[in-house]
Amino acid sequence: MGKPIETAMDRIIKVKTKEVIVALKKNKEKHIEEYKKAKEAYKLEGLEQLEQIAKDLESGKTGLHLNLIEPIDRTEMFDDFITMFEMEVDDEIQMGTSEFKLYFLDKGSLSDQARFSNSAYSTKFRL
What we know:
There is one protein chain. By secondary structure, this protein is mostly helical. The chain has one domain. It is about 65% helix and about 5% strand. The chain has a two-stranded antiparallel sheet with strand order 1-2. The chain starts with a helix and ends with a helix.
């Protein structure tokens, strides 16, 4: 019979350090592109909201404010990880499931938060 699912999910694997660096650099480039598009969409959304606020002010409305979701830049996080693995002295390292997901699959709370924030206006502006 196979391992229980809890044990399989906590598996420790050995990976080449260079492969971790390659994966992180790839994920970083993807993040940078997403962030650039998010910044442009953020700007467009802000300008659109400002135009509406100006119209609302002219008509006498009060209590006006911008409602924007700020893009998140996680480039520094990727740089920190890359530097850490570039300084690793071993050619192979061990990692568990959560580390594998973070470094290879770019899945983790910080990455998820950035993806959510950075996609806030993507459907509206199609950048």
